[in-house]
């Protein structure tokens, strides 16, 4: 006679493993856009290169990419010269103020980062999230030294497949 009260867990585990295999999505590595300017204040370069990366071919129009980088560069062009002037003044007065004269530069640098993050949020919601991309400002270690720099990361948003049982 068959054992009707027996519970077989092995079959359930195999089915769950098969379901998980169907949901694995391969996401490419993020594209890194490094600063290309001649001046850096607290790791933030005064401009980013607008050359179209190969990893974005057939994902976004080169014109859209260039327009985004130009908007980022215009924010940097407005804010970083002021930061440099305050940095120079802060360094001159550093001994007299015991380092407190550098606080305005730190605050202005944070404000610049905040402005860039707001711009990137707007760009993402306007265009890039619809294309499966996400731009963000991130800190990374420089290749040549142990110093940190800010880079633009373009991450790929994984598409969630809809599971249809056979």
Automatic annotation (TrEMBL):
It comes from the Eukaryota. The keyword Membrane applies. Pfam families: Erf4. It is found in: Membrane. One of its GO terms (cellular component) is membrane. InterPro entries: CHIC1/2, Golgin_A_7/ERF4. Keywords: Membrane. Residues 46-135 form the Golgin subfamily A member 7/ERF4 domain. PANTHER family: CYSTEINE-RICH HYDROPHOBIC DOMAIN PROTEIN BRAIN X-LINKED PROTEIN (PTHR13005), CYSTEINE-RICH HYDROPHOBIC PROTEIN (PTHR13005:SF4). This is Golgin subfamily A member 7/ERF4 domain-containing protein. It comes from Lasius platythorax. The lineage of its organism: Eukaryota, Metazoa, Ecdysozoa, Arthropoda, Hexapoda.
């Amino acid at each position: 006679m068959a054992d009707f009260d027996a519970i077989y867990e092995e079959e359930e585990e195999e089915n769950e493993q098969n379901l998980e295999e169907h949901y694995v999505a391969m996401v490419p590595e993020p594209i890194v856009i490094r600063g290309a300017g001649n001046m850096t204040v607290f790791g933030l370069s005064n401009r980013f290169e607008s050359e179209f990366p190969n990893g974005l071919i057939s994902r976004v129009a080169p014109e859209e990419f260039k327009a985004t980088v130009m908007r980022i560069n215009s924010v940097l062009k407005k804010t970083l010269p002021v930061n440099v002037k305050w940095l120079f003044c802060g360094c001159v007065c550093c001994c007299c103020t015991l380092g407190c004269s550098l606080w305005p530069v730190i605050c202005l640098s944070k404000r610049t980062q905040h402005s860039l993050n707001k711009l990137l949020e707007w760009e993402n919601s306007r265009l890039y999230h619809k294309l499966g991309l996400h731009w963000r400002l991130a800190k990374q270690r420089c290749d040549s030294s142990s110093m940190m720099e800010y880079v633009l990361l373009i991450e790929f948003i994984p598409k969630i497949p809809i599971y249809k049982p056979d």
